[in-house]
Write a structure and sequence with these properties.
Layout: E1 10-14, H1 19-29, E2 33-38, E3 52-53, E4 56-57, H2 58-63, E5 68-72, H3 77-88, E6 92-95, H4 101-104, H5 109-115, E7 120-125, H6 140-146, H7 168-191, E8 195-200, H8 201-207, H9 210-219, E9 236-240, E10 245-249, H10 253-263, H11 277-282, H12 284-295, H13 300-310, E11 314-316, H14 320-325, H15 327-331, E12 335-340, E13 344-349, H16 373-379, H17 384-393, E14 396-397
Parallel strand pairs: 1-2, 1-6, 2-5, 6-7, 7-8
Antiparallel strand pairs: 3-4, 5-14, 9-10, 10-11, 12-13
Helix pairs in contact: 1-7, 6-8, 7-8
Length: 417
């Protein structure tokens, strides 16, 4: 059975926390065999607690499902040699170390391409591997600020800058990295030629400013925050109802007229302040005031029923837990469950891309520290005695209690895509 469109791709993930692990997770969900290489203390996200799930970090469990795990001490030459042998047989490597770290290990791209010319070498960093900021470390908060995102997020002009709630440059950089890896892998399959794939949190943030950059290019002025409103269309934002909030997408003229019909205010079509999208954008504050007076008269569910019947795009503002329970999220397999040996049934977010012929499979929980170390080393030619020696010498680390555990078979998760 196919495990996804990338079934057969061998990936080594030398990444921690979020951006790199998100990239590896996307590839794993699409069928790649992803081996996560951790330091002896483990990925830093193992210590992002609380919350825990039966003693395991919820953050680590979320970002590392569907991968196999090995823990190597890269300060030990035997650990470095094991990594070199892994990379010699890999199709893709993902790394988000500081610039120069892999070169110091003798495992930079130029060294690796000599032993594995087909290798796709994916680097995810704060600012990219070229340019004046190449040597800087990077964090989502910093990238959000420098990419312009925080200048367009918030309630309005004169208010403090606001970071979007999700670490969106981390996640977007991971998605861009996975896209780049898949494209470079296709090229390598066709030509035998690997290459570097280089993306960053900074560039991920910049790609999310398409509309605002279009405005700035055209006008020479930087747009500011508009709350939930759209920079180019109105009304297209959240409005308060009698019991909560509702998002209304009445941006084009047809939907604007549908909205007026639903709220029972056809006279607004004759109001010169709101006749066209341009007029509504110029008079946005007045528009919001008028519409709010109408929308606050009924409850969210009532408005949603009326708007759906009219064919008007609208939706509730859900909490995260409400989103998890939403029937559309459930129907699209966006909430999946895997069975973890310590944490039990663990829920996570599903694969957001569906494939009709080669569906992805999510059937492996995040690995415990070094869980698959023995089997991974055996696959690249290490004998039992060599592995024992690496364990004794500290080059290989396996979490206590796993040495005698039987390898857990891959099995389909409940709700897998």
């Amino acid at each position: 059975m196919s495990r996804g469109p990338l079934d057969g791709m061998k990936v080594v993930e030398l990444a921690h926390i979020m951006a790199g692990p998100a990239c590896g997770m996307m590839l794993a969900d699409m069928g790649a065999d992803v081996v996560k290489v951790e330091k002896p203390a483990g990925d830093d996200s193992r210590r992002f607690v609380p919350p825990r799930v039966e003693g395991e970090s919820a953050a680590y469990l979320m970002m590392n499902r569907n991968k196999r795990g090995i823990a190597l001490n890269l300060k030990d030459r035997d650990g470095v040699e094991a990594l070199r042998r892994l990379l010699a047989e890999a199709d893709v490597v993902i790394e988000n170390y500081r610039m120069g770290t892999m070169e110091k290990l003798g495992l930079g791209y130029e060294a690796l391409r000599k032993i594995n010319p087909r290798l796709v070498y994916c680097e995810i960093s704060g600012f990219g591997r070229t340019g004046p900021y190449a040597s800087r470390g990077g964090f989502d908060l910093i990238a959000q600020g420098m990419s312009g995102l925080m200048s367009i997020t918030g309630e309005g002009p004169g208010r403090p800058p606001v970071k979007p709630g999700a670490p969106i440059t981390d996640i977007t950089a991971g998605i861009l990295g996975a896209m780049g890896c898949a494209a470079a892998y296709a090229h390598a399959q066709a030509t035998g030629e690997g290459q570097r794939v280089d993306t960053s949190l900074f560039e991920a943030g910049i790609t999310l400013t398409y509309w605002q950059s279009a405005i700035a290019f055209a006008t020479g002025q930087a747009p500011g925050p508009l709350g939930s409103a759209h920079p180019l269309n109105a009304p297209y934002q959240a409005f308060r109802t009698r019991d909560g909030w509702i998002n209304v997408g009445a941006a084009n003229q047809a939907n604007w007229l549908r909205l007026l019909d639903v709220i029972g205010a056809p006279e607004l079509d004759d109001d010169p302040r709101f006749g066209s999208n341009h007029d509504r954008m110029v008079n946005l504050d007045a528009l919001v005031t008028v519409l709010s007076e109408h929308l606050e008269t009924r409850e969210t569910a009532d408005w949603l029923t009326r708007m759906e019947a009219a064919g008007l795009p609208a939706g509730p503002v859900l909490t995260i837990t409400e989103m998890h329970a939403d029937p559309q999220a459930q129907a699209r397999d966006m909430i999946v469950t895997t069975d973890h040996p310590a944490a039990g049934a663990v829920k996570s977010i599903g694969l957001p891309v569906k494939f009709s012929a080669t569906p992805g499979v999510i059937d492996r929980p995040a690995p415990r520290l070094g869980e698959h170390g023995r089997e991974i080393l055996a696959e690249i030619g290490y004998g039992g005695a060599e592995i024992d020696q690496m364990l004794a010498g500290g080059a290989l680390v396996i979490e206590e209690g796993l040495e005698t555990a039987d390898p857990r078979p891959r099995r389909e998760a409940r709700g897998a895509t």
